[in-house]
Write a structure and sequence with these properties.
By secondary structure, this protein is of the alpha/beta class. It contains 7 helices and 15 strands. It starts with a strand and ends with a helix. The relative contact order is 0.10.
Length: 246
Amino acid sequence: MEIRTLLIDDEDLARQEMRHLLGAFPDLHIVGEAADAVEAAARIRELRPDLIFLDINMPGKSGFDLLAELDESPRVVFVTAYDEFAVRAFETNALDYLLKPVRPERLEKAVEAAREAIQNQSGQQAASASAQPYVLRPDSLVFIKDGEKCYFVRLTDIFLFESEDNYVRVYFGKEKPLHRKSLNALTEKLPPELFFRANRQQIINLANIADIEPFFNGTLRVTLHSGMRVEISVRRAGEFRERLSL
């Protein structure tokens, strides 16, 4: 299995060294490089890599800022000279964290973790150079940066999106970080077989529904497995019944 790989680092020599080290792994196909977050975002959308080796501290936007701008995150191995980022990087559930200069034995462990994670991921995104907009998959990883806290989360683990001013509160597990995208923008990207726009303020995960009951004036009230209750508006109730064959 070929793993499409992108190198992101503002230092040309660091990218050259990483390319040399990765030559020991023939299944890692380096599809491109980027020297900053702006270039990296364009390359990720164009090349759709499975895996990125990402420097954190770059001029302008950081590696964390880059991930926060993406609709969907590839698998990530952080590579940096600054170990102060270590705890923060692992809070994001990154595959691994490598300190410069990268040791071959540590790189081998990171590559092995990448192989396992990518092979275990069901319904993988087909390798494509198309930059056209696309709908996320249920198993897609999204990156959320809320202040100093960063998270990688799989879409299937999110049970509710809730509009909050111009941003969205994202509920998964016991967490509820604020995502810097609008609810309308998310609606266009989320897989329709999994998520439903319940009303103007909320999108629910259909697989997380524990109970449904009639509510006021033709609305429905849904109880999620978390215990949270969401009202399905009159305007959306008919489509909701069709989706669930009620």
